[in-house]
Amino acid sequence: NRNFMRMSINADAKVSFDKSGEVQSLDAVCLDLSAEGLSLKVPIELEKGQQLSVAIVSGGGVPSLKATAEVVHSQRLEDNSGDYLLGCRIISMD
Residue 25's CB: how many other CB atoms inside 10 A? Predict the structure, then answer.
């Protein structure tokens, strides 16, 4: 039950998160975005509740969109890539 429509963007993103007191970073793809959430394709599984810093890379001199988000669900993609699909709730926009 979504209150806002999602916009498909398929944009490169950088994701950072705290794991055992150490900041980890990885490359991701933001598949879609709405006012309240986003979905990310990432190379590793992240747990529900994990907080993320997300920077969606934009082109043409437009600044990156930066947000803090929380993983709501994580599932392995069935395309044999080994990647995971994360559904995230946006906590704040930076």
Answer: 11
